[in-house]
Specification:
Bound molecules: pyridoxal-5'-phosphate
Number of domains: 2
CATH class of the largest domain: Alpha Beta
CATH superfamily of the largest domain: Type I PLP-dependent aspartate aminotransferase-like (Major domain)
Structural class: alpha/beta
Distance between the termini: 24 Å
Number of helices: 12
Radius of gyration: 21 Å
Shape: globular
Number of strands: 14
């Protein structure tokens, strides 16, 4: 058999995601949970939603969790609950998923960007420089599953009288100095999208807060502003966490710690093997990063990605186009060169497979391929 064919027939390759493996590990349990919902028939805001919210609040160590339709809706509802709208400015990071900024624009406010640090997290000094009399809130993003510098951001917010809305879409279960992502700000927003580390089997999101009045407002806003069956006390959305999704998320929550530990072990293995070849995210003693993404930075990124793809190794770029350079941002008046750290990273970043079902052999295979690309050995 020719060498090339032998390589192809060997079971090799490292998929970026592995949903079949997740189904194999937990499928029965998930199907039973869904069956319970079907048997009960409480499809809208059913008992699984109530239990899921209780468990999610416990995960974050906060008083309230409110289940919503998606991570994007979580952000929109948070801004609306804080009555942020036309004439207001909200400061966020330009290197995030578009939702971090679109939510601000969608409530009629203006997204203002502040550049990030080498660790992909928003820079508190640059936030401070971006504050104006119109600023109402800071919206830091815990990108890759690592908390932003919440101590500095909290201090800034107190000094300037601003709300803090955490985009914790990538950070369910992450902590910084023992405090959970989502528990630092006025409101914390989570996505439970199938591709997140804590994943539903469709769209789903969660909002958390310590404040009773805000929680009450969020519950109204996600469900037509309804108090009781027939009284709408304000204009709300239809953005409730689906009961089937809640049942699935409860299965995932029970295993979240195991999943995060596995991802952290994978990260450590990558860090050790890739040292000196590419820049890896560094672990810090005061935090528990959950590695939703393992994002390296390297030279000749596009060629590296192609080289890995040829070897069956799946990678992604989070995200190739910074938000301020998206066509949708045109009206905001930003252009190339405005956020040099973000823009330089966008050309160098690459997310390696980090899901919990990877074996050590698969990670070694990725590292070997990266070494071969850069050193030819
Ligand atoms: C995924 C994601 C969102 C949006 O969540 P959806 O559930 O897809 O709406 C927002 N912000 C960040 C940082 C994300 O990664």
């Amino acid at each position: 058999m020719p060498a090339a064919q032998a390589t192809l027939s060997r079971r090799s390759g490292v998929p970026y995601t592995d949903f079949p493996a997740q189904f194999q590990a937990q499928g029965r349990e998930v199907l039973e949970a869904i069956e319970r919902v079907l048997a009960r028939g409480d499809f809208i805001l059913g008992s699984e939603v109530v239990e899921c919210e209780r468990e999610f609040a416990a995960l974050c160590g906060v008083r309230h969790a409110v289940g919503v339709g998606s991570g994007t809706d979580a952000l929109i509802l948070a801004l609306r609950a804080l009555e942020i709208g036309p004439g207001d400015e909200v400061i966020t990071a330009p290197n995030s998923w578009v939702s971090s900024a679109s939510c601000i624009a969608l409530v009629g406010a203006r997204p203002v960007f502040a550049d990030v640090r080498d660790d992909f997290l928003i820079d508190p000094q640059r936030i401070e420089a971006a504050i104006t009399p119109r600023t109402k809130a800071i919206l830091p993003v815990h990108l890759t599953g690592r908390c932003a510098d919440m101590e500095a951001i909290g201090a800034l917010a107190r000094r300037h009288g601003l709300a803090v809305i955490e985009d914790a879409a990538q950070a369910a279960g992450a902590t910084l100095k023992g405090r959970a992502a989502g528990a630092f700000g006025t409101i914390g927003c989570f996505s439970l999208h199938p591709l997140k580390n804590l994943n539903a089997i469709g769209d789903a999101g969660m909002v958390v807060t310590q404040e009773d009045a805000l929680a009450e407002r969020l519950r109204l806003l996600r469900n037509h502003g309804l108090r009781g069956r027939d009284e709408a006390v304000l204009w709300g959305l239809n953005s409730r966490l689906d009961t089937v999704q809640a049942a699935v998320i409860r299965c995932r929550l029970a295993r979240l710690a195991t999943v995060s530990d596995a991802r952290r072990r994978h990260a450590a293995r990558y860090q050790a093997a890739l040292h000196g070849l590419v820049s890896c995210p560094a672990d810090r003693p005061e935090e528990y990063a959950i590695y939703h993404l393992f994002m390296i930075q390297g030279d000749r990124r596009d060629a590296l990605q192609q080289f890995l793809a040829q070897r069956g190794i799946g990678t992604k770029i989070h995200y190739p186009t910074p938000i301020h350079l998206q066509p949708a941002s045109r009206g905001l008046g930003y252009g190339p060169g405005d956020f040099p750290v973000t823009e330089a990273q966008a050309r160098r970043i690459l997310s390696l497979p980090i899901h919990q079902h990877l074996s050590d052999d698969q990670i070694d295979e990725v590292c070997k391929a990266i070494r071969a690309f850069y050193t030819g050995t």
